[in-house]
Amino acid sequence: MPSYIPSLLLALLLGFSVVAAAAPLQPRDADFASVRTRLDRDRSGKKGDPPDKYFHESTFHPHYDGRFADRELSYRERQAHLTALMQTYLSTMNDIGAETWIMHGSLLGWWWNRKIMPWDSDIDVQMSERSMHYLADYYNMTIHHYKLPGLPDGRDYMLEVNPHYKNGSIADHLNMIDARWVDTETGLFIDITTLRRNATAEAEGKKGSMMCKDDHHYYFDDVFPLRESVFENTPVKIPYAYSELLVEEYGEQALTDTSFENHVFNQDRMEWIPIVEPPEPVLPPYYNSRGDSPAVKKPKLRMPPKISDLGSS
């Protein structure tokens, strides 16, 4: 159970009033200064991105938010923090009543062992259009604090909605991601895309056509009714025709090949095992030989263990 601050998220940091949470979204960035935590400077790619792009991935890796991260995590660190990221997202969406489900690589991980695949560095989910409007109206830029085992001070996660989410055209290729759930300590995030009616296809007689801005196309009956399951030891929803969707996106071999990305699948342990231990990531040049930034000492991230339950503060 999270404790969230619907409009206080940056009522303190940005000086907005409490009623600002429900104000119409404006196409402006939540820049580094407005959300900064422990870092000395912004390491997002904002300066090099086109001006109409809202989300800015880090300069050192596309699956980190450079407002909160200054390095890649190690293989083991990333697994632990992605698990917590997924669990807290699902718990929060369930608490506030948003309709969401896992897709793409995350759904493939569910297929194999109900877990995130260990070589993945991101998580993909979809959401109904009605729920995305709901998040934008009431939960945009909210901070959700979780007490996690092994982390005495807990962890803050930020829900951020792209103001371009109302533009459902695939031509808006700079803003394919409608929202993100961001770990404000590690910079890892979940990409959230909205499933919408495909009015163009329906006008051509293709009833029940659906689409996302990232140019994935479906039929209503592919996704709904959603099925109930478990992912990373947390209740989750998955699309109705999950196997057909996975085969269409990845091919039949993705559901049967037990060797992939330098891992083998152990049927007895129901786990992907690395063939060799993955190497440590190379630190960016602004770190010295001890792993410290010359401007600010790099805090040692504590890895949350596997979480069986989530507490609220």
Automatic annotation (TrEMBL):
Major site of localization recorded for this protein: membrane
Ranges for the LicD/FKTN/FKRP nucleotidyltransferase domain?
99-199
GO CC terms for this protein?
membrane
Q: Which residues form the signal peptide?
A: 1-22
Localization in the cell: Membrane
The keyword Signal belongs to this UniProt entry's keyword annotation: yes
Taxonomically, the superkingdom here is Eukaryota
Record keywords: Membrane, Signal, Transmembrane, Transmembrane helix
Is Lipid biosynthesis found in the keyword set? Answer: no
| InterPro entries to which the protein is assigned, alphabetical | FKTN/MNN4/W02B3.4-1 (IPR009644), LicD/FKTN/FKRP_NTP_transf (IPR007074)
Q: Which Pfam families match?
A: LicD
Record region (Disordered): 286-313
Mode of membrane association: Single-pass membrane protein
Q: What name does the UniProt record give this protein?
A: LicD/FKTN/FKRP nucleotidyltransferase domain-containing protein
